[in-house]
Amino acid sequence: MGSDGAIFFLSDYGTGDEFVGVVHAVVHRLAPSVSVIDLSHEVAPFDIAAGAAMLARAVPVLGPGVVLAVVDPGVGSERRPIAVRVDGDGPNWLVGPDNGLLAGAWAALGGPTSAVALDPGRLTPAWTRRPDAGPTFDGRDVFAPAAAHLVSGRDPLGFATAIDAESLVVEAPGSRATRPMPTGANEVSALATWVDRYGNVQLDLRPSDLEELGVAADGVVQVFFAHRPEDRAVPARRVRAFADLEAGELGLVVDSSGLLALVLDQGSAAELTGATSGTVVRITAGAGARR
Amino acid sequence: MGSDGAIFFLSDYGTGDEFVGVVHAVVHRLAPSVSVIDLSHEVAPFDIAAGAAMLARAVPVLGPGVVLAVVDPGVGSERRPIAVRVDGDGPNWLVGPDNGLLAGAWAALGGPTSAVALDPGRLTPAWTRRPDAGPTFDGRDVFAPAAAHLVSGRDPLGFATAIDAESLVVEAPGSRATRPMPTGANEVSALATWVDRYGNVQLDLRPSDLEELGVAADGVVQVFFAHRPEDRAVPARRVRAFADLEAGELGLVVDSSGLLALVLDQGSAAELTGATSGTVVRITAGAGARR
Amino acid sequence: MGSDGAIFFLSDYGTGDEFVGVVHAVVHRLAPSVSVIDLSHEVAPFDIAAGAAMLARAVPVLGPGVVLAVVDPGVGSERRPIAVRVDGDGPNWLVGPDNGLLAGAWAALGGPTSAVALDPGRLTPAWTRRPDAGPTFDGRDVFAPAAAHLVSGRDPLGFATAIDAESLVVEAPGSRATRPMPTGANEVSALATWVDRYGNVQLDLRPSDLEELGVAADGVVQVFFAHRPEDRAVPARRVRAFADLEAGELGLVVDSSGLLALVLDQGSAAELTGATSGTVVRITAGAGARR
């Protein structure tokens, strides 16, 4: 993999406990020259679907290395610890629990080419886990050592067993279909898939979906929110940049992933509209009557 | 110490200010090839006991290097800045204020073999501190330079004076005795020592303490919380993994430190029970009448 | 710049999304041996003035390298992406949007010696940005590549155009004048410029300002807060260290930047007084009548 490969680390550990630092320390002890890059550790506890979505957004930009992802409510149970091989010029291994967390990432990277089930007995260093400790911290005891070995180019069959990539869990619990659906001649429905720190509301819509509705690049649409009464449609203007909007005006920009997002200029579209991740919206072309 | 030694950094600085980054920058300027691994900076402000407990949990897993810890309400006063030497294959120096913060860590690493008092006058680089600045940021001016020098293998007597290890402060203010006490033939009392991000409540109990009560590996106990009326005992089942529990069922697992913790499956035991760090509980064997 | 130069990274990205990690990954892909040191990413969204103040406090301590700063509500609009050259033994380039964010930093480092406007077309790697993505993440697409190239010593004219340093935006929107004003023979007014995690309230006053009022090094002053009735002056004692104060007693220490700060011992002066960043205070010498 070359000495420049990094480990890209995502979890729901938060940063108030020592979990993240301990995982870094385990990697450093096994592979001292490897950089560990934190994607985020603020995934909501146990929210596999949110972690999977974040990984899917991030991985296309990452360089060579190993993705280490831990959102793992089933730790210590029968769910398998896995490493999944993918091709391409980005990360070549994805390490984590077999619970759907990694599925969005491998899909974004062209799909798995092979997979292994990690063997804790061969991975856990004697110094990470007291003999009397419980199996509640596989990030430290299993996944970090596996990521360190893989980024160092070691043969996974030294600490894992080949499994059928077809047997992998491909859907995170609670994940939703994310394909916009035309719901009428002049209308499309969509799902809010992510609300970021600024309150931007990413939709599972691409610009072409609006073009099919006949909305121009600077056109106006009406947005209906499933959680609000129908007569409270909010107009939103297609713009290129946040700063193109008036104060308080709802906009639609193409975001850094190529998807449409509901936004304000220097404000939170999520707060304005009450939308959260999972909110369903319908969009119709035209400035509407209530402008 | 070898070039792979890392600095393991814990503080109550938070990440909303530039303190943590400035300490990293000072280390990088003095020892550019050294990795600084953040354990956590979210220790509650001034909570020496919580920082000490976190260090004690973390240090047994860390590799060679230097622990840099700053929870330091006495900064600028007469409390001594120190570095404590420990033996073993983990960290060999612990750097911080002499206020009990480091005591759990050196105890977990076999006790101090020697100690020095750091000399700010010989440590503070001219570029970290304006001549007119106050002595309020020893993390930047004293502890970071000391850690950088020690991880680089420099002689501590170049910037510090030997002191008697017997003179070190060994107890953090507000720390509590953490030894379970049998309080009856069929009962043990314990202390909640840590609530983690998931709401798992770590107790100062080991599995052997329950075995002495005659509780089987999959047995049920009654947990009485000092802050709740006695008749509100909550049953808790000994399980191996979170996923072995029913939804909403309180469990006891052996955690990653070898201690027992009150847990839920994908939920917060702290929220369910109202337990916080410092809560006292009594545990009796048996399924009880109120199941 | 030498191989030890680091990138010092500040933003309003927060750590709940993957933005910070993606920027680290882009730098690592372009300059794998370079350390990226996070100053903070918790600047309030869009708060250019707060980011500028934090940079101004931090940069005098930083070693060689590049400052990468992104608080950028105008992303995608006509505001220029820039890199500003400064002399000295600290950072030699400041990279970010031309919106005043960098102005405090270059002032603290002696002023700009030259400047360039970054050219996104020559900077954005094909792998960071899908062809159909919007221009909403210049941290990833423009600033991180520029910082990676500059820290690696590449010629900025390969990806940027010289501009007149006189044309740079020098004031962050919403920033306030921060010079104490004598408002009477025995009085000085000042501005609260920063409240840190501990609730310490930094003022734009130096010890010499109090000396001009005739306040001794251990003297007492009366502090009037613009947001509180005049008769509610709070006495504050000049001390060297937090621990010199009684419990609950307001103090004035010289902080690590050489400025005076209102503080408590192990408590929040901001909470006690209601002061926030931007609060105006008046200070008079003397213990007052209400001691």
Fraction of residues in H or I helices of chain A = 10-25%
* Secondary-structure element pattern of chain A, one letter each: EHEHEEEHEHHEEEEHEEEEHE
Which two chains touch over the largest interface?
A-B, 37 and 40 residues
- Note the overall shape of chain A: elongated
Structural class of chain A: alpha+beta
Main sheet overview of chain A: 7 strands, mixed
Number of helices of chain A: 7
Widest β-sheet, arrangement of strands of chain A: 2-1-3-5-4-6-7
Please report the total strand number of chain A as a whole number.
15
Mean model confidence by pLDDT of chain A: 93
Residues in β-strands, percent of chain A:
25-35%
**Which segments of chain A are poorly predicted (pLDDT under 50) over 5 or more consecutive residues?**
none
N/C terminus separation of chain A = 56 Å
Rg from alpha-carbon coordinates of chain A = 22 Å
Oligomeric state as shown: homotrimer
